[in-house]
Structure to design on (697 residues):
């Protein structure tokens, strides 16, 4: 029992952090915000799924994907396809020339439902597809690249190209995907109207619960021996390989897990916001999601959630009042985080916390971290000189 | 069979013009990728603000054209050549500033560079928007760049395309000579291959870094300046180029200039052929998918560097 507690919650300290996050998300925010603002927070929470996945993938495994928007979008599209089919029953679409198919297909002169869409009439299949399709795509991409030892910046550039391909592909096939406008006008989930206030509250709580579930999964992965292998791979990949571990398999697993988490986020986004479009899939959203994780602290699962909330709140406040300043601020924030706070908000918190109880603990910690850093830097130097 | 409706000479003209369109895309891609081939290929820095340096060059040409129009109209026929030099210098100086203020702290963290340069690209975009407005701008081009060149009655080759092509070939040749024949080029290659050893034999590696980064940015500025002859410039023009640019460099095998040339040629021809058979965006999608698929099978690119890792 104690072992489970240690693993899942990271002991007293970790459990406390999780409880505080849960109280903020599930009690304080719903009590202090009206439903419009809470719905916005719900939208940010769906981005936080991606950030949590990136903490596992980037912060703890050292693999930076600039294509997490693909998986967010795929999850979202799977959910939206089911909801759109439910909203396009023959009775409510009887003015179309072909009743019973989504409106944008009718506008594009399609006369029957494409085969791709047919399985999404079934809710269990849609739920399965939300997680399985993105994980499958991640498996294919990951196996192809990690088995050939493509990593680092090359992986980032290629995932970015895939993000461009997917968003252009969705954009270009208007009849099948809704094109640039995406899939809009979603109404009910199994007959339950998702646009009402009570539904939005319920969906918000579902999103919070799922997010905390994802954080717990992340904790399990990181606290077991596997988490240690991942971290070791991040620091000295070749040594881990020489010790007999199949590095590629670990990377593929984490990539799939992060993809599945992003996809859950995408599905919760669609349920709460009511649409999905290629603008959420492409290069810009994918990088923004990396920034959420970076601001929160790329090593910290909880930090990623706070980072997402802070950046998005800042974005909506600033873009309402000073739209001119927002990009300057956002750009400056990226640079500042990378250059001065590589561990983001979570790193700041560690500094603050260690100043509080007194000097003694801090001295030991900094001595340790200084020692590890000096051990790491020459290693990285050697790596970069080798041309990777 | 539409083809039967044309006579043999007309088909020949179509082939020439299509071939020229492919070549002109090739020179555009090559120009975009040259600066990055130095910054990413040689230095290993992932500069996501590269597109913004191109936009900077394009805006400099626009500024020069405005100044010339309003103050010294007599210079109008020649200003474009001067403007390209100014674009090179300004982009290079901004690049040197960025290297001094940001990049030199990040060489050991390539993934972080990627984020920091993305932040830089946002700031540069907003700066362009604040100064020049959100609308796209076009400089007034000198007469000799307009119009087209007609060797026969049916063949119609735009002069601006020829200009971009000539410029990109000139730059490629110049850079190759510079990198492989000049003393500074030797220092650059030495530093990128073995920094510690280069420092030990007396090369100021910090200065070499700054110069190399500035050179790459300056070339991006020239590329941007050249693009004003074929399209207009907006604050987010840079972002449109960035993925293509990186793919050209990675596809070519990042440490090789020859690879960059070959991959720009391959991608350009692939894209013009696929755009002939498919609709606009899907042609692009097909090309990109082809590149990514080839990169998955051959991650080191077309011309991998022969240095042992």
């Amino acid at each position: 029992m104690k072992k489970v507690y240690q693993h899942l919650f990271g002991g007293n300290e970790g459990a406390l952090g999780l409880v505080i996050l849960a109280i903020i998300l599930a009690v304080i925010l719903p009590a202090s915000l009206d439903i419009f603002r809470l719905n916005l927070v719900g939208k940010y929470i769906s981005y936080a799924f991606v950030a949590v996945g990136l903490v596992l993938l980037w912060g703890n495994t050292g693999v930076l994907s600039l294509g997490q928007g693909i998986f967010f979008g795929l999850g979202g599209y799977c959910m939206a396809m089911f909801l759109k089919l439910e909203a396009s029953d023959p009775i409510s679409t009887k003015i179309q020339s072909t009743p019973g198919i989504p409106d944008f297909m009718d506008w594009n002169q399609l006369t029957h439902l494409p085969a791709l869409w047919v399985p999404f009439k079934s809710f269990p299949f849609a739920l399965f597809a939300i997680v399985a399709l993105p994980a499958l795509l991640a498996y294919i991409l990951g196996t192809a690249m990690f088995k050939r030892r493509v990593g680092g910046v090359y992986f980032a550039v290629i995932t970015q190209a895939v993000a461009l391909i997917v968003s252009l592909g969705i954009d270009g096939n208007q009849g099948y995907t809704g094109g640039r406008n995406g899939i809009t006008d979603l109404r009910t989930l199994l007959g339950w109207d998702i646009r009402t206030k009570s539904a939005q509250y319920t969906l918000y709580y579902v999103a919070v619960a799922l997010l905390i579930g994802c954080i717990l999964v992340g904790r399990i992965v990181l606290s077991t021996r596997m988490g240690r292998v991942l971290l070791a791979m991040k620091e000295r990949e070749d040594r881990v390989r020489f010790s007999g571990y199949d590095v590629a398999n670990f990377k593929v697993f984490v990539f799939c897990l992060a993809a599945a988490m992003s996809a859950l986020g995408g599905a919760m986004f669609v349920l709460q916001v009511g649409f999905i479009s290629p603008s959420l899939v492409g290069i810009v959203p994918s990088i923004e999601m990396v920034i959420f994780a970076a601001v929160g602290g790329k090593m910290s699962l909880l930090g990623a959630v706070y980072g997402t909330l802070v950046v998005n709140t800042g974005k909506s406040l600033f873009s309402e009042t000073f739209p001119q300043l927002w990009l300057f601020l956002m750009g400056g924030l990226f640079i500042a985080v990378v250059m001065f706070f590589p561990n983001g908000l979570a790193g700041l918190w560690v500094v603050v916390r260690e100043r509080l109880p007194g000097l003694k603990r801090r001295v030991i910690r900094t001595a340790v971290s200084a020692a590890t850093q000096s051990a790491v830097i020459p290693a990285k130097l050697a790596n970069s000189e080798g041309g990777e | 069979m539409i083809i039967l409706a044309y006579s043999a000479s007309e088909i020949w003209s179509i082939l020439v013009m299509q071939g020229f369109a492919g070549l002109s895309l090739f020179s555009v891609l090559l120009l975009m990728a040259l600066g990055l081939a130095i910054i990413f290929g040689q230095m290993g820095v992932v500069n996501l603000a590269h597109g913004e340096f191109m936009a900077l060059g394009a805006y400099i040409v626009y500024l020069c054209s405005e100044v010339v129009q309003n103050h010294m109209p007599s210079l109008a026929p020649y200003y474009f050549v001067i403007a390209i030099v100014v674009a090179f210098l300004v982009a290079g100086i901004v690049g040197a500033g960025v290297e001094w203020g940001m990049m030199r702290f990040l060489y050991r963290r390539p993934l972080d560079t990627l984020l920091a340069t993305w932040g830089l690209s946002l700031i540069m975009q907003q700066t362009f928007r604040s100064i020049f407005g959100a609308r796209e701008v076009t400089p007034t081009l000198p007469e000799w760049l307009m119009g087209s060149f007609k060797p026969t009655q049916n063949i119609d080759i735009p002069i601006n395309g020829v200009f971009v092509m000539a410029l990109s070939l000139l730059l490629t040749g110049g850079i190759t000579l510079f990198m492989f024949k000049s003393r500074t080029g030797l220092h650059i290659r030495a530093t990128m291959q073995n920094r510690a050893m280069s420092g030990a034999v007396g090369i100021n590696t910090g200065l070499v870094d700054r110069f190399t980064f500035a050179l790459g940015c300056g070339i991006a500025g020239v590329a941007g300046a050249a693009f004003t002859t074929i399209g207009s410039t907006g604050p987010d023009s840079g972002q449109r180029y960035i993925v293509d640019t990186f793919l050209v460099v990675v596809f070519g095998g990042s440490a090789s200039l020859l690879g960059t040339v070959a991959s720009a040629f391959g991608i350009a021809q692939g894209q013009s052929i696929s755009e002939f058979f498919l609709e606009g965006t899907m042609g692009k999608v097909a090309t990109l998918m082809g590149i990514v698929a080839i990169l998955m099978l051959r991650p080191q690119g077309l011309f991998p560097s022969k240095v042992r890792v």
